[in-house]
Amino acid sequence: MNPIKFSNALIIYFLFSLCACGQGTKGSNRKKMLMHNDSIEMEKEAYWKTKLSDEQYYVLREKGTEQPFTGALLLNNDSGIYKCSACGNPLFTSESKFDSHCGWPSFDKEIKGGKIITQTDNSLGVERTEIMCAHCGGHLGHLFNDGPTSTGMRYCVNSVSLEFVPEKKLSTPRLDTLTLGGGCFWCVEAIYENLKGVVSVESGYSGGIKMNPTYNEVCTGTTKHAEVVQIIFNTSETSLDEIFKVFFTVHDPTTLNQQGADRGTQYRSVIFYRNEAQKKAAQSIIEELERTNIYDKKIVTSIEPFNVFYKADISHQDYFANNKNEDYCQLVIQPKVDKFEALFKNRLKK
Length: 350
Ligand SMILES: [Zn+2]
Fold this sequence. Notes:
Blueprint: H1 3-23, H2 27-51, H3 54-61, E1 80-84, E2 90-93, E3 97-98, E4 106-107, E5 116-121, E6 128-133, E7 139-144, E8 154-157, E9 162-166, H4 167-170, E10 175-182, H5 185-192, E11 198-206, H6 215-220, E12 226-234, H7 240-250, E13 258-259, E14 262-263, E15 269-273, H8 276-291, E16 302-305, E17 309-311, H9 319-322, H10 327-343
Parallel strand pairs: 15-16
Antiparallel strand pairs: 1-2, 1-9, 3-4, 4-8, 5-6, 6-7, 7-8, 10-12, 10-15, 11-12, 11-17, 13-14
Helix pairs in contact: 1-2, 5-10, 7-8
The structure holds zinc ion.
The site of zinc ion has 8 residues, from loops.
């Protein structure tokens, strides 16, 4: 069953539950309703059967208990978060885990915010407190008040009910910045704006000899600046490699100081590297392109150390988006955007 159908089933289930409580339906109507509830419950369990392993189903849905000292997370001491293995609800942090010697992963407190619900469990003839995931209702284990830490609590949890996510996978997005010149910055900016993982693109100037140059000064070619885009990207969603692939797809790296009708050093093909990793990645993709003869002429893209980026004035930012009907946008930029969108269609933001 797909998740949407499942959530609809749950909504219907809850609506019927409310009806049953509020109106005290009698006779055959009530019987029908109970049968309906049963069928929804069966549908829900069928969903979990497809989603969970046999062992997970036994513990999470049938309230089973894994054998002590067998769980994969019993001895795990790495930093990170423990989530419900059925639905991903975050339940415990590694700081709350301790060795209780009871045979199951133990925690002295849950992550705040009502992530866990409890109910009384008399199944073994003694009263215990069962703990369940508040999001999906999955059985986790039991809660005891004999914990050795200051909280006094011991959440005794089946390993199989938990999924551990190491801290390094939780870290905030890693951002990288790259500055590229591929001819008119209006074109290059328009393309990168729509690539998944790109956080921001700004048009500006790099690689020249004058501080704070104006657009008109750069256009003369005397300041030695290149028109560039400064791209900030999330390395967990895209990569230096992909940024370069797009770069070499959407401009011509074989024409010296020229892109189409745009001529001058300000239109040179250039990669401004900020560190050795960027320099090596740039060198290696150019070598690869040369080796495989992707172009019939030599690549003239220069690889230069990054020094400073001067942001162009506001009229040059988002130029294509703001001036789509202009001839230059229609004739020069749109075909490049179309080519990019066709080749990278699975990598577009929209
Ligand atoms: Zn859950």
